Structure formats: C-alpha cells, structure tokens
Amino acid sequence: MTPKPGFDANYFILEGDIELMTSTPSQNIHEAFASFGRTDFLMKQSVVPVVAWGEGDDFIRCIGTASIISCTGYVMTAAHILMDPFDSGYGATRQGNQMVLADKLNFGVFVPYNPAYGSRGFRYFGFHKFWLWGQWKESPLIYERDRFEYLTDIAICKIGEMPYGAAHQPLNLSLNPFVPGEAAYALGYAEMGDIPLDYGKDGMIIKDFQMDLFVSVGEVMRVFPENHLQKDVPTPGPSFDFNAKIPGKMSGAPIFGGQGAVIRGAVSRSFSGERHAFGAMLGPAMHLPLDEPQITGRTLRTLVETGNEGMARVQGAGL
Question: Which InterPro entries would you find in this protein's record (predicted)?
Fold first, then answer.
C-alpha cells in the first residue's frame, strides 16, 4: 500500500499504480471495470463508507466504514454503526427485539464507478437485511431511551447484488485472532465529512465531496478473547487493542492481519488525539447465527464453507 506524498508512513491516504486484480479478466465489461484501476479505486470497491439520509435532508451523514465480504453483497461493519439511526434519533425505532428503519431513511453504502465509464460517480446500495447480536436493556427512567447491549461489536448486513451480472469485490476473512506484536492495518474513511445536498427540478443533487481512503498502521498490544464474560475493556465482546491513529469515521473499518492479507476484526472505538484503539475480533462472530424466519443454522462460517455466496476460503501459515 503506497502512501500519498507528504503523509506519515503509519497514517496516510492510499494511492497506487494502475493494477489488474486478475490475469484472466471477466468477459463481463462491468465486472472487468470493477477489477481494473488504481489501487485506491480497487480498495474502494471493497472498503466502503456507511451513509444515511432522510427524505428532504440537506446533507448525507457519513457514519463510518464497512467492508464487502462476499460477491453477492454481504457486508461487515461495527454493530454500533448500524445502531446509529436509533441511538442518534434520526430514522429508526425499536419494535420488540428488533430495530426497524424508517421508510424514508436511506441507509447503506457507496461504491464508486470506475472512471473508465467516462464519468465520476458511485452506486448507492441500501442495507435490506442486517444482523447484530445482544439484547435490549430497558431504562427504569422515563426520560431515558432503551439501549442495546452488544454481545460483540461485529455486525453483518446484506446489500443488493451488482447490476449487469457483475459481482462485488470481496475481502478475505480469517478465523484466526490477532496475536500481540502482530501488525494491524485499518482501512477506512477517516476524515470523510457529511455530504451537502441540494434540490432542483429534477430532484436531489449531491454536491462534490472527498472520498479519501485512509490507511492506519499499528501493532497489536493485547488481546481479550473472553471479554464478553470478563468485561476487561469497554469494547463489547472478544476484542484487542492496537497502537494506531483511528479517527471516528473509521469505526466499522476492516482491520487486516497476516501482513495485510486477511481481515481479523473491525474498528470498534478509539481515543481522540491518541494512537490507541480497540477492535472487535471477527473469529468468534463467524459462528453466530445469521437466521431469518425461514432459514436457521446459517453462520458466516457456513457461508464460507459452502461457497454459495462467493466468500473466499483462505488457508496458509499466518492467515
């Protein structure tokens, strides 16, 4: 990963040369365009900003970062990112044990077009399913809202498939945990601001905005595999901490281990102005249920093992 000139080697905007991700490009031109381009464009096909806006809003909220983990559109982010519309009170309510999004709320991710199409732009993919694990806690105080107590800060969402028969560009997942001393690489939209909107006779107009992908590099210091039981640190569930600069908009971002080859976790929380952050472990969450009314027994691990959703099986020393 190449830093943009003028940036620190441990915290920088990603740049890169023109690359082709495969030696056998797809015959589908749309799929080929998604796998050809500069390094930063290719990573933006897989590491995506989480956004939200309601009908009539004058801006789009940039909430955090997510990563695409299957060809069919499974996405991983932080659970607290998914709960933001409820926690911040702009587009979700509790109904029983579920969080229900308002009909007029757009909540999902942006995936950029390849400039080879001849224009700059992106596709919006809304979350139409999501899974997070924990339980609601009701407050005895009338003026306090209910809150969700997380079992883990890992969350899984589902977006629509790419159009024209193309596939999303997924990242590799690892069951293995970080170990102290291992290098950790977080990729996310650290400094992406809210996006101004305008309205004309033809509808909503999205004004120009920056969508820079930042890389933050650090070293894992401690791991807390039993944190869901022992509550050693405030990050919910099995977790780890690492010494990297992690601004708020990187919440939910993938954290790579194995020398940058596989995702081992997601950014959970950080401390402003400090090189210290916590990540949620992915491995334990791979076994949690992804149930639906007519589907039981499905987990991230079973999706990887069956291969039906286009999730890579990665094996080898250190992965």
Answer: Peptidase_S1_PA
Pair 201, 265: CB distance under 8 Å = no
> What's the CA gap between 165 and 223, in Å, rounded?
41
For the chain, list residues with pLDDT below 70: 1-4, 16-37, 116-119, 272, 315-319
Give per-residue pLDDT as tens, 261-274: 899 999 999 886 78
At the top level of CATH, the class of 2-306 is mainly beta
CA pair distance 84, 286, nearest whole angstrom: 23
Three-state secondary structure along the chain? CEECCCCECCEEEEECCEEECCCCCCCCHHHHHHCEEEHHHHHHCCEEEEEEEECCCCEEEEEEEEEECCCCCEEEEEHHHHCHHHHCCCCEEEECCEEEECCCEEEEEEEECCHHHCCCCEEEEECCEEECCEEEECCCCCCCCCEEEECCCEEEEECCCCCCCCCCCCCCECCCCCCCCCEEEEEECCCCCCEEEEEECCEEEECCCCCCCEEEEEEEEEEECCHHHHCCCCCCCCEEEECCCCCHHHCCCEEEECCCCEEEEEEEEECCCCCCEEEEECHHHHHCECCECCECCCEHHHHHHHCCCCCCCCCCCCC
Q: Which two tokens stand for residue 85?
A: 């519309």
Place of tokens 């999205």: 206
* pLDDT score recorded for residue 18: 46
How do beta strands 98-101 and 105-112 pair? unpaired
Contact between 75 and 69 under an 8 Å Cβ cutoff? The reply is: yes
Alpha carbon distance 61, 54 (integer Å): 10
Side-chain-side CA neighbours of residue 15 (13 Å): 7
C-alpha to C-alpha distance for 8 and 138, rounded to whole angstroms: 45
CB–CB of 267/260 below 8 Å? no
